[in-house]
Amino acid sequence: MGMMDIDNEDLALVETICGGLPLDPRPYHVLGERIGLSEDDVIKRLQNMIESGVIRRFGVIVQHRRLGYTANGMSVWNIPDERVREIGERMGHFPYVTLCYHRPRNLPEWPYNLFAMVHGSDRDTVQAQVNELANELELLDVEHDVLFSRRQFKQCGARYGNKRRGVHEQCKFD
């Protein structure tokens, strides 16, 4: 993957998508109107930046509480190292697991190495889903726990400074 030259239009596009895509049937058309590009040009520029690695991720951030998922818990698991990849991949296929990743243990205080975020309408639902994971994946004998969040911070995508103005946007709290 070679280096890509970024021009002012690419920078303007990156700054614009940092605020999120507009809720419109043609979001790339709306973005283009904001910065003086055609819809096709916006799509081509984004594709080029993704293919060249300038943009590594392009995804959705869902505000789960607004959708009625008011309980969320990070399930943490002490999976044997030789099985963590297999179990993580299987766990990530459950519809209520929205995030699943491997992290190193911090022994002796923290024995967990697999993390799976589970959302539900209430804590009992989340706990039942974690129990289902343990049953379905035959992890009943594996040490695990659920860490429920007490408050929600605003989630936002990457923010990049505006080099032309020296402005750096930060995530703001709801």
Explain the overall architecture.
- With 174 residues, the protein is of the alpha+beta class.
- The protein has two domains: 8-52, Arc Repressor Mutant, subunit A, CATH 1.10.10; 64-148, Alpha-Beta Plaits (2-Layer Sandwich).
- Helix content is 32%, strand content 14%.
- The chain has a four-stranded antiparallel β-sheet with strand order 2-3-1-4.
- Helix 1 (8-17) packs across helix 2 (27-35) and helix 2 (27-35) crosses helix 3 (39-52).
- The longest helix has 14 residues, at 39-52.
- It is elongated and about 60 Å long.
- The model is unreliable at 162-174 (pLDDT under 50).
What fraction strand? 5-15%
CATH fold topology of the largest domain: Alpha-Beta Plaits
Round the Cα radius of gyration to an integer and report it: 20 Å
Structural class: alpha+beta
Cα distance, first to last residue?
Answer: 39 Å
Q: In the CATH classification, which architecture of the largest domain applies?
A: 2-Layer Sandwich
- Main sheet specs: 4 strands, antiparallel
Q: Give the number of helices.
A: 5
Can you list the strand order of the major beta sheet? 2-3-1-4
Run of helices and strands: HHHEHEEHE
Descriptive terms for the model:
2 domains, 4-stranded antiparallel sheet, elongated, alpha+beta, 4 strands, Alpha-Beta Plaits, Arc Repressor Mutant, subunit A, 5 helices, disordered C terminus, 14% strand, 174 residues
Summarize the structure.
The protein is α+β, with helices and mostly antiparallel strands.
